[in-house]
Amino acid sequence: MKTSSIFLSISLLIGFYSKTTLSMLKYPIRSLNANVASKKSSNDTPKKFFSTPKKATTIVALSGATAWAYNKIKEKNNEQAACQLSPTECAATCRLLDGSTIGPKHNDIERSGVLLLVPTKSPVSKHPFDQWGIVIGHDQNINLWMVGQAGKRDRTDISTAQTASRELLEETGGYVKLSADDISQLPYIYAGRKQLFAYKTTSTTLATDIKQSVKAAQKNPHLDHSFKEIDDIAIVSVNNFLKLAEKIDQNWLTQRQYTVTAQDGRTIILEAFYAQMFGHLYDHTRYQNAQLFFQSLCK
Q1: pLDDT on residue 117
Q2: 20 to 30 A Cα–Cα from 174, which one of 1, 109, 227, 232?
Q3: Model confidence over 46-98: pLDDT tens digits?
């Protein structure tokens, strides 16, 4: 009796555990199949939902390099627009002292500056061209003398008058300061994408004062190098300068450097870049305009 009871109990236990084990094995398999089915359906759903792509946004973020290039192009466009919309600077080839103009307008000016016209009071000749002189500076970078205080336009310059104002200040050692507005009203002459305004003064000491200023600038450690390019100043009479321009115009001189005598007797070697604005082998109107220009100034 006891033995049969024991066997019965063992059989019941075996049966219970067998049923439980089968159940445990059965439900995980269903669960796994359910998970696989769920993942499969979840993968299908996005494809079906996003079958129509979203409309692209119109705002594009520029990278650093791209943004820099874009801004430079924009600055250049603004600079060209400013030049084209500047009638007082590009209205003609030449504007005389009385305001009258000669020749067509120009909007391709790349360099600009100022011609300083000072009285020379020559005792030898009473001709107006001998009574006035041009202040020229010696550029120590190229070891040549420059006609006018001039230079290349910067990207930030909105007009050639602004370029001329900056170059005048730098090439006089910070001594002569004229605003862009004042310069834009001055007489000027244009040739070869260059424009020189003319400032006429009655000061007989201006050239000497500028010379002292550029000499002092050489020793000033706080000034930028642009203020130290010019290291000497001289005066060339308008008469001597126009004689040189005539020789260039008549093809007597074809070199890139020209010699001319300064008021103090020194032999000055001029660079041709700006000197050819007043006389050129292939453009005889330059010398003609130069004569009219200085005639109006030296009255």
Answers
A1: 98
A2: 109
A3: 333 333 333 333 333 334 444 444 454 445 544 444 444 453 457 899 999 99
